[in-house]
Amino acid sequence: MTSLADRVYLMASGQIAPPAAEGPMEIRWNWFADLYDNPRWGLCTIPGFTASAAHTVAELCRATSIDPTADADVIADRVTALKARWQAIDRLAAIKGGRAQSEAADYAWAAVAASAVDAYDYLAGIEFSGTETVSSAFWAQLVTQPANVAVVRINAATNAWASSRRQGATGVAA
């Protein structure tokens, strides 16, 4: 049986797929948002990573999914605005991550920076996996929580992803 830390390492190293590595963009970006602001398992629970920062990044994640059927000019304007917002968050992550008061907060800010890279890729039409975002968020839980609490939180996040995939596939709550 593989330990939770080993599973997160395998995710981070690309040996196993992390949650939200693929799937419909709206579902993926909503789950990434929950990775920040879910009150049970999100990064908002990490000491040194403020709830307001978590909620700000979560709101931006939720805004990032773009309707491909929208008018091309509307999409272009939206992409430009989203890129500017992600650049601001990315700069904040660089500053805050460099000044983090704990290893867990540093991992949380690393997740933010990784989300920005994922967003840049997505907005440029490039595939992204979210691997760095997920593994950084999970490492934040591992280094700040007792092992049994980290297991519960990471399993809850993973289960939420599985549930959102089932819901998205059927259009009905799982």
Q: What is the average per-residue confidence, as pLDDT, rounded to a whole number?
A: 91
The overall strand count is 0
Question: Helices and strands: which structural class?
Answer: mainly alpha
Instruction: Tell me what portion of residues adopts beta-strand conformation.
Output: under 5%
Number of helices: 7
What structural keywords apply?
174 residues, mainly alpha, 0% strand
Structure description:
It is a single chain. The chain has 7 helices and no strands. The model is unreliable at 170-174 (pLDDT under 50). It has 174 residues and is an all-alpha fold. It has helices at residues 4-12, 25-37, 51-64, 72-98, 103-123, 131-144, 147-170.
What would you say about this model in short?
This protein has 174 residues and is mainly α. The protein has seven helices and no strands.
SSE topology:
Elements: H1 4-12, H2 25-37, H3 51-64, H4 72-98, H5 103-123, H6 131-144, H7 147-170
Helix pairs in contact: 1-6, 2-3, 2-7, 3-4, 4-5, 5-6, 6-7
